[in-house]
Amino acid sequence: MSIPPALPETAIYTSCYCEENIYFLAKSFIDHETYVVFVSNENKTVAIWNQKRARSPDIPVVWDYHVILVLKTANSSWIYDFDAVNASPILLEEYMGRSFLPDVLPAFRCLFRVVPSRLFFETFSSDRSHMICPDGTYSVTPPTYPAIQSVAHSGSNLMDAFVSMDSDKPYGEVMSLEAFTTWGESRG
């Protein structure tokens, strides 16, 4: 089994800004085969177990969306999730078994938008408006660095296009839990 790179000690992390955390992590693994994966559904209510924010280990966290990184090596796929209880990286099979239940209620079932990291770097832009409350304040304090803006989409906000699980959106491929697990376990 190929050993993946460790989570860098200098990795940038801001609570509740998973897409930005993963953006910078993927940048640090630029020479590897990586994919940015948005997890959501049409209701924006996905149940994910094995998360640090859970009230107890047997209760999932229900996110509107979550973002993880997949790094593929010669014979394994590894997940990096800053918000998981287990240290990253973790084998995809182990992560999936701990984090997702196949028989969850339909309103909480996860879909996965898999985006090659290079495409993500070229296209992703967020003005962080999805974190602003009706009163104009942030629901969670934003990072101190500027919002991520791709050269191709500078000044725009594409968060909805990436979080959406509508397969008509042009960024990556949307997969079911089963399809994502099969894709992650495959090589080539």
From TrEMBL:
GO cellular component, one term: cytosol
UniProt EC number: 3.5.1.122
Any GO MF annotation of the entry: protein-N-terminal glutamine amidohydrolase activity
Keywords, comma-separated and alphabetical: Hydrolase
Catalytic reaction equation(s): N-terminal L-glutaminyl-[protein] + H2O = N-terminal L-glutamyl-[protein] + NH4(+)
Residue ranges occupied by any Protein N-terminal glutamine amidohydrolase alpha beta roll domain in the UniProt entry: 13-181
Function per UniProt: Mediates the side-chain deamidation of N-terminal glutamine residues to glutamate, an important step in N-end rule pathway of protein degradation. Conversion of the resulting N-terminal glutamine to glutamate renders the protein susceptible to arginylation, polyubiquitination and degradation as specified by the N-end rule. Does not act on substrates with internal or C-terminal glutamine and does not act on non-glutamine residues in any position.
Subunit structure as annotated in this protein's UniProt entry: Monomer.
Record-given protein name: Protein N-terminal glutamine amidohydrolase
